[in-house]
Design brief:
This protein is an alpha/beta fold. It has helices at 16-19, 61-75, 86-89, 100-115, 131-137, 144-160, 180-184, 192-216, 238-260, 265-273, 282-288, 309-315, 339-353, 379-397, 446-456, and strands spanning 9-13, 79-83, 119-125, 166-170, 221-227, 231-233, 294-298, 303-305, 357-361, 402-408, 428-430, 442-444. It has an eight-stranded parallel β-barrel with strand order 1-2-3-4-5-7-9-10, surrounded by five helices. Strands 6-8 form a two-stranded parallel sheet. Strands 11-12 form a two-stranded antiparallel ribbon. The longest helix is centred in the middle third of the chain and has 25 residues, at 192-216. The radius of gyration is 21 Å and the shape is globular. Its EC number is 3.2.1.86.
């Protein structure tokens, strides 16, 4: 492979609720993640004294971040995507003043990254929000949350303006359609109208955060974050192609609003056709005109779409409820592996928006085996990442402006979907199991050394 652009940022991505632990330290409040002990698709369990949640300690990044950042630096990271736990800054979500202990913690974290010349990319809300805002206000369905989020955003921009120049608003903002509690703090049985109203409030809040960032940190860049849910038509039947267009628009809509500053016509038609009335004020319309600087997204797999209801019914019985692509292999979790899809997605997003792109999540979850010599021979992960990064290089050659790549979970962490540690993504093994047993010791996997060489050669060591 020829080398990537000199300015290309290499690194990894983690989320506070999946790595930090310390769930009640430093004045932190309870978040939606804290009451989802079995992940984003699990039931809600109000916390009881003495109960156990795997995320309560997670991998103890809260206390061990200097050691972990040192390992990231050893690999040569130039960027680490992290999130701020909103409840460390505003424990209930509606306080007038931020929690100093939470601000001080992230000050220390960003200082540690600076010591190693690692650029932080910070997500404001990554699959969690204050549980107090759900209990007392009804989540994002309540317009009051816009002001609470703007206060939070302005607080962290003001505090960290000299330390953080890359920001993201909401992680995988389009996931609210599939996991409303995690995304917008609404019950799973909420109506489409209720979910889209909550999403609207979140889109307005995102735009106001972008405006605040531009005001407070003029030399910063702030982007959105989409779950890259690229779908293919199962056949070339026009009905399949049309349904695929509509399916892709269901998530691209979020990017359209955040990049173009208004609701697209196809979405207004969808609302009309489905009897959905979204309260959009004139001030909302003005707010949405503030657009993002770049687009970030996750990419794990693609799926197929068909108008054939019989096939759709069969697909609902599989783990992902999507029609599988007969031309692709799958991971042990049933996620189909499609490196070329990443090149297609990069080209489609570039053609659609003409804004810089950043791949902020991509990786392979697998059940790794720690050998007697303390290593993990994860050639399957190396193969997966190599093939995807080769396609990133191809997209760059196609003329796509790609800012960087932060693979998901550079260190083993608690999975979002089912709150498991057995589903491992990292280059660094963490000694802890799904029951919370283990020493939390860190060990370098084979992929650790592979990624270190990829970064050192700026992609030149990749095998096409």
């Amino acid at each position: 492979m020829k080398a990537f652009p000199e300015t290309f940022l290499w690194g990894g991505a983690i989320a506070a609720n999946q790595v930090e632990g310390a769930w009640q330290e430093g004045g932190k409040g309870i978040s939606t993640s804290d009451v989802q002990p079995h992940g984003v698709f699990g039931e809600v369990a109000e916390r009881q004294p003495g109960d156990f949640g795997i995320k309560d300690v997670a991998i103890d990044f809260y206390h061990r971040y200097p050691e972990d950042i040192s390992l990231f630096a050893e690999m040569g990271f130039s960027c680490l995507r992290v999130s701020i736990a909103w409840t460390r800054i505003f424990p209930q979500g509606d306080e007038q003043e931020p929690n100093e202990a939470g601000l001080a913690y992230y000050d220390s974290l960003f200082d540690e990254l600076a010591k190693h010349n690692i650029t932080p990319m910070v997500t404001l809300s990554h699959y969690e929000m204050p549980w107090g805002l759900v209990k007392h206000y009804g989540g994002w369905g309540n317009r009051e949350l816009i002001a609470f989020f703007e206060r939070y955003a302005r607080s962290v921009f003001t505090r960290f303006k000299n330390k953080v120049k890359l920001w993201l608003t909401f992680n995988e903002i389009n996931m609210s359609l599939h996991a409303p509690l995690t995304g917008v703090g609404l019950p799973e049985n909420s109506s489409k109208a209720e979910i889209y109203q909550a999403i609207h409030h979140q889109l307005v809040a995102s735009a106001l955060a972008v405006k605040a960032c531009h005001e407070i940190i003029p030399d910063a860049r702030i982007g959105n974050m989409l779950l890259g849910g690229l779908m293919y038509p199962l056949t070339c039947k026009p009905d399949d192609v049309l349904k695929t267009l509509q399916e892709n628009r269901s998530w691209l809509f979020f990017g359209d609003v955040q990049c173009r500053g208004e609701y697209p016509g196809y979405m207004l038609r969808y609302f009309r056709d489905n009897g959905i009335e979204v309260d959009i004020t004139e001030s909302d319309r003005q707010a949405l005109k503030t657009t993002i600087d770049f687009i970030s997204f996750s990419y794990y797999m693609t799926g197929c779409v068909t108008a054939d209801e019989e096939l759709n019914e069969k697909a609902r019985g599989n783990i992902l409820s999507m029609v599988p692509n007969p031309h692709l292999a799958s991971s042990e979790w049933g996620w189909q592996i499609d490196p070329v899809g990443l090149r297609i997605l990069l080209n489609e997003l570039w053609d659609r928006y003409q804004k810089p792109l950043f791949i902020v999540e991509n990786g392979l979850g697998a059940k790794d085996k720690l050998e007697a010599d303390g290593t993990v021979h994860d050639d399957y992960r190396i193969s997966y990442l190599n093939d995807h990064l080769v396609q990133v290089g191809e997209a760059i050659d196609d003329g796509v402006h790609v800012l960087g790549y932060t693979c998901w979970g550079p260190i083993d962490l608690v999975s979002a979907s089912k709150a498991e540690l057995s589903k491992r993504y990292g280059f660094i093994y963490v000694d802890r199991d799904d029951q919370g047993n283990g020493t939390l010791a860190r060990a370098r996997k084979k992929s650790f050394h592979w990624y270190k060489e990829v970064i050192a050669t700026n992609g030149g060591s990749l095998k096409a």
